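Hi V.,

You were right to ask for the full record rather than a summary. Here it is.
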Amino acid sequence: QVQLVESGGGSVQAGGSLRLSCAASGSVGRINTMAWYRQAPGNQRELVAQITSGGSTNYADSVKGRFTISRDNAQNTVNLQMNTLKPEDTAVYYCNAVLRWTFAVYWGQGTQVTVSS
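Predicted structure:
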C-alpha cells in the first residue's frame, strides 16, 4: 500500500507560478513511476508529467517548456513546478504512483489549481 498526499495548490493569475508537492508513504521502495495528472470540469483526467525512478521524464505537449517534474527518492516526494500558468491549466491536480512488478496504481486526493485571466 502507498499513500500519497498533495500540497501546494491555489489560485494565481495568468503568467504566475505554483509548485505542487506530493509526499509518498507506505511501500515507497516499490514505487517505479510517479506522475501528475489533472482533471478539469467536464473533461477526462489527463497526464501532465511523469518521472521514472531513474529520472526519465515525459510531459504533455500542452505543458512542455512551462512545467518541470522532479523527484527526490530519498524524501519520497515528487514535485511539479508550474510556470507561465494559463487559464486552461485550471484543474484538480492528482499525484499518481505505479508500483514495480504488480503495476498497482495509487492516487492522491487531489489539489485544486485555479488560474485567472
